[in-house]
Amino acid sequence: QSSQDYQFVLALRLATKEINRNTHLLPNITLIFWTLSDKNFDAIVLSDTLISLGKDGEGVPNYTCITKASIIAVLTGPLWSWTDIAFGSFYSILSDDEQFPYLYQMEPKDTYLASAMVSLMAHFSWNWVGLVVSDDEQGVQFLSDFRGQMKENRVCLAFVNMIPLRMQLYMTRAHIYYEQIMTSSANVVVIYGNVNSTLAESYRWWKYLGIRRIWFSTSQWDNVINQRDFNIDSSLGTFTFSHHHGEISGFKNFIQTLKLSDHSEKITLTSLGWIGFNCSVASNNFKTLKDWSSNTSFESLMWHNFNMAMSDESYNIYNAVYAVAHSLHEMLLYHVDMQPVAGEKLKFQHWQVVWLPLYAIPTVMKVRKENVKLHSVTSTSDFPQLPSSVCSVSCSPGSRKSPQKGKATCCFDCTPCPENEISNQTDMDQCVQCPDDQYANVKQNHCIHKSVMYLAYEDPLGMSLTCMALFLTALAVVMLGVFVKHRDTPIVKANNRTLSYILLLSLIFCFLCSLLFIGHPNTITCVLQQTTFGLAFTVAVSTVLAKTLTVVLAFKVTVPGRRLRGLLVSGAPSYIIPICTLIQLILCGVWMGTSPPFIVIDPQSELEHITIVCNKGSVTVFYCVLGYLGSLALGAFTVAFMARNLPDTFNEAKFLTFSMLVFCSVWVTFLPVYHSTKGKAMVAVEVFSILASSAGLLGCIFAPKCFIILLRSDQNSLQNF
């Protein structure tokens, strides 16, 4: 006997009491019941009496009540298969009308039980659970339903124990089941099956051995799981599930007002008082407990563990009694309509008790939390901080799950996301690539928008190059002013001052053209960068070539009237500048006409930046321009090198040779460095090469002359020649 058994009886008493007091249902008929209890089965038997004018045994004068009764219905638990109305768990096999034509199950099918359990597990992030079910049709069906819900909610089974129904077979395997649950890391275990079976004995054994777990089960297991022992506590928490049903408003009041003396069944008051604590002790220990008074009400048990709420089975019993009553009522009306012979006793067959009122069975499951005990409670919510039950610790944002070979999907390793990929949630299967305009942060848990980058004037590197360009431009202007001011001195006249003016002006444009590479690029600046650079440097290098040829011709003219003298006097070397410039202009025209430079937004070159640069357009034409400049520089260097040993009074042959050596060295170095850099660094390399090569020409050719003009004026005179 247990408090749950007594609640079944109380639900039955309430239903029969209400029916017997209802003048519109079974008038002049009293329903009575008695209970049969055995260790092998529990049943509640309903019977009818002969037609009586009284209710609940109340006598009426001048009438005789016939006490002989016939059984018309039997209410049983889940283990009876031959009876009429079963109020225990639903069994699919018992729904076979051919095999069990007179059996009606009041409990609805547990269609959504597995879904409700798995959903709650997912809510608490319990994805590593054990399952213990009875090895029968009911357990196999639940296992199938549970597996179907696991994949959707990413829950995995750590182990499955199929407990056999035969005790002898169970005892041979008990140690295996114990080892499975004991060695498993799963802290959540689901128990499903009949409470009056080896499954319950297995749970009691585990409890005795001190196995502490969070237990999931149905409300039928309340009495087993919540049964307390003063020395043992094996539950970290218990979650029991039941079908959602309406509350019977009069049930609680019925229990509160019912006296123990009113209970006609054989209830040991001492045992009932002990059951109030929901404890399990041997029957011979009851003699040590003080008997409760017969006037004690059930309300006094409320502060113990006697459940005042109606359980699923009690609700089914309550509905079953009403179902039988309505069936009898309809059959009575049928017999009245058929006008039976006066005095003939009404006889009912099993097949006649087939009409049960239709009522809705909601499919929503409700969960009740009981006995949640923790070593430390850090939360004030309805559900405190509960132990975890996972196979692997969750992968934090910034990493992804890597399945462990040969194990369940809930068992995995955590692998950091690859470069520029993120995971912003826990337990992500794959990392996500950041968009082109974003990049992953250090923790790789979210993407950051890239900043736009180019060689700006405000940038330290851009500012340095700008200052350098302006300084060199100013220096070239100063040197040009010195040459103009001292244009009649021997050193200026001896080196063809016109070519010197042209070279200084071209170098000024070379310095200034570098500024086109700095700042936010646009279509115009992209075109001007290359054309200005190509033309300015062509003029400068061709002027150096013209000056070199002039020096060579000047020293080769030794006999008056020779043809070389005519070339020198006519200024033929000066024609080299426009011819060479025209060729470069044609190349630039072809370049701009076929594939001109354009703006490129490059999100790939730099991780944290979007680089805006000018694309050269046609790379072939670009290298043709550079190659043409290189050929001019190489020609100028060759001629100057040949004239390096000529008399050096007012002779700039050596300076021209060294200047072209610097110029060629800069641009030969430029090519590999340029191709090894990206973004604004690549632009900076090009700007620096322009400034360095132009500064080499300015410093090597004009700095010595300015030194003589300004500081050594005594050497700038024909008197000392």
From TrEMBL:
Signal peptide positions (record): none
Cellular component per GO, a single term: plasma membrane
Molecular function as annotated in GO: G protein-coupled receptor activity
Chain segments annotated as transmembrane: 461-486, 498-520, 532-555, 567-592, 620-643, 655-675, 687-711
InterPro entries xref list: ANF_lig-bd_rcpt (IPR001828), GPCR_3 (IPR000337), GPCR_3_9-Cys_dom (IPR011500), GPCR_3_9-Cys_sf (IPR038550), GPCR_3_C (IPR017978), GPCR_3_Ca_sens_rcpt-rel (IPR000068), GPCR_3_vmron_rcpt_2 (IPR004073), Peripla_BP_I (IPR028082)
Domain G-protein coupled receptors family 3 profile, first and last residues per copy: 461-721
Protein name as it appears in the record: Vomeronasal type-2 receptor 116-like
